[in-house]
Structure formats: C-alpha cells, structure tokens
Amino acid sequence: MNIFNDLTNFYVIGISYRNADLHTRGKFNLSKSQKIKILRKAKSFHINEILINNTCNRTEIYSFAESSSVIVNLLCENSDGDYETFKQLGYVFENTEAINHIFKVGTGLDSQILGDFEIIGQLKNSFNLSKDNQLIGSFMERLTNSVIQASKRIKTETKISSGATSVAYAAVQFIINEVDNVSNKNVLLIGTGKIGRNTCENLVKHTENKKITVINRSKEKAEILGHKFDILVKDFSEIHVEIEKSDIIVLATGADEPLIHNNLLPKKQKLLIIDLTIPSNVDIDRSTKNVRVVNLDDLSKITYKTLSERKRHIPEAKKIIEEIQQEFLQWIHDRRYAPALKALKNKLIEQQNAEIGARKRKNGVTIYDSSLSYDMIQKITGQFAFYLKENPTKANDAMNIFNEVFQLDLQNHE
Q1: pTM for this one?
Q2: What domains, with CATH codes, occur in the chain?
Q3: Which one of the listed residues 42, 52, 56, 344 is annotated catalytic?
Q4: Which one of 75, 166, 216, 358 is least enclosed by Cβ atoms within 10 Å?
Q5: Catalytic status, residue 200
Q6: 187-190 and 248-251 strand pairing
C-alpha cells in the first residue's frame, strides 16, 4: 500500500481571451463581493486553499477540490456566466499541468500582450484576498512566491519586457499611431486604478499633451494623480460636460455598468474611445459615424515591432520557469514525507518520555536533562529524511515499513 501521495486534485479552471470574446469574458468577470462569496462558499465544500485570478483577459480559479466541477460550479453560480458557455469555451488543467499554466500566466507568457507584467500585481492582490479569508496554506503560498520569483528573474534577466509592455502602453501607442496632432487633442481619462494610473503616465510621457483631464468617482484619488502629473482634475458630476468636450476618451474604471451612452456623445467632432474595461463601460450604437470604439481585443491584434522582438526571448524565459518550477515540484515531492517524519519524531519522543518515566518509578531517580536523547531523536529523523530524499524509488517502501513497525499516527500530522 502506498500511503504517500504526490500532487493530486489540484485544478485550474478558467475562461480567457484565447477562446472567449470580450463580451463573454465580461459575464464571467467577478467583482470583489462576488469573489468573497466564492471564497466563503468554498469553505462549505471543505476547500482549504483557493485563489481567484480575475483580470481583463481572464477569470481563473486555482484550488484543491474533490473534482473540477465543484470549482466550475462555484464560478458559474457566482457570476453572470453559465455552465454551458463554460463547457464550450472554458478550460480545466489538473495537477502538474495546472502548475505549468499558472507559471505561464504569472510570468506574462500567456498574456494577451506578451510580456505584460501587470499580471503579477493582480496575482498578489488575489493572494492577499484569499489569505485575508484564511484560504491560503503552505502549498499556495509557496506556489505564488515561486511564480513571483520567476516573474522577477524573467523581467531582469531577459529582454522579453523590452520597451513598455502593458495594456496601458498599447493603448497610448495606438492613440499616437492613429490620431494626428495628438498633443493638441482634448484627452479625458476616466478611472484611476492601476491601469488608469499607468495609462496616465504613458499619455504624459509619450504624447506631450497638456490637455489631459482625469475623472474618478473618488475625486481624492484623481487629485493625487493630477498633482503627480500636473493635469486637470474634474468632479465626477461633470463627466457629461467633459465627454462632450473630448476628442479622445480612455476608460479604465471598475464600474459594473456602462458609463458612456449614445445620449452623451458629441454631435459633431470625431471621438476616439479606448475602452480598457471589462465588462465594457461603453454602450453605444457602434454604427455612429463620428465615434470609434477600440477595446482590449482590438488592441491585442495590433502588432508592434517591440512585440515581435520579445518573442525571440521566449526560450530564455521558459528556461527560468522550468528551473524554478522544478524546484517547486521537488518541494512538493519532499513535502509528502513531512507528516510521516513528524509522526516518527513524536513517536520517538513519546517512547523517550515513557522510558524516563519507567526508570524514575523503578529507581526513584529524577532525570532533569533529556536534551541528549532529544538530540539523538533529531539526528535519527534527520538521517531518515535524508535517506528518503536521496532514494526516492525506495522511499514509499521505507515509509510503509516504518509505519507498520511504529504504528505512526499520520492523520494527526497532516
């Protein structure tokens, strides 16, 4: 009987830009309250470790579970998505394949814009949300830290991030390429989250435009951005007036409902709307002649020389991922012995204490220092741990024998 298992029942389930369009991804997109509902519901299914990775390009859940259908149902029941759509367009990865996928996602190799490292910040936020809800254990913490380590090394040791690589940068490059005399256009930025802030920085840096206005529901956050980049800040209540005056609008909000409708659009001048939101914050008749709307999927189809250059560095990035991933998988392999080694150590300590008690009763001798025998126990378990790691093909047989001889209580040492 093999009483020690490797990685089992670990899943990635998700839906992303690779198979689903922006509208479909929007249905599976999760608000913070929906994420918390999933996390709380997961506990009722006795799920101890789960992480929700939700971005403009994907919604994924990483978790241990009895089956992948448990996690898929959690997603569908707590979003606007449905099971049939997920069955058609979603994906499920299991165990090592799931870990491979998470490393690719976290290091920007699976991003809609190759080398987009904004994903690692989003992954950290997802990790913190799960940790705040007591749904992160040693496995998920080690995995997340390993992915972060790989991401940092790829960013510093390869040129896959040569030039700016982000949705925000792609949006600004699109504006520069498509709009004549961009430095003199009225630009309205709506939203001051991370993508909004990065977009603002790129607008200021690359367009030399002095007519940028920022609006956010929280004016205080907008004013921080306005002060940093010396741009105009308007109250959210003035959004209708500012839209009317704009030549270019960049939407980078977290609003659940569209902010721009047909009745808000300017009547005469041309208007370019860059919509970086999911679900979409634009609900207009796309046939309107003087208005052009560009969304995330449109941006991803634009090929820049820098993106072509980055592809040459994918093999280097994969080598780094393979190295760190192998270290993580080795940790998983070694980790499976921990409960047995702990149980063995406790059994030896138990026997030590029993022997000390027996001698005391028999001889009336008080033994004050048991550190010597404890040190011996440490050496015995340490030597045994070394043997297991150095002889992986014999490890299961060895552990089964020790379990049979010492009757180890493995259940209480998981």
Answers
A1: 0.72
A2: 10-162+313-334 (3.30.460.30), 167-303 (3.40.50.720), 337-413 (no CATH)
A3: 56
A4: 358
A5: no
A6: parallel
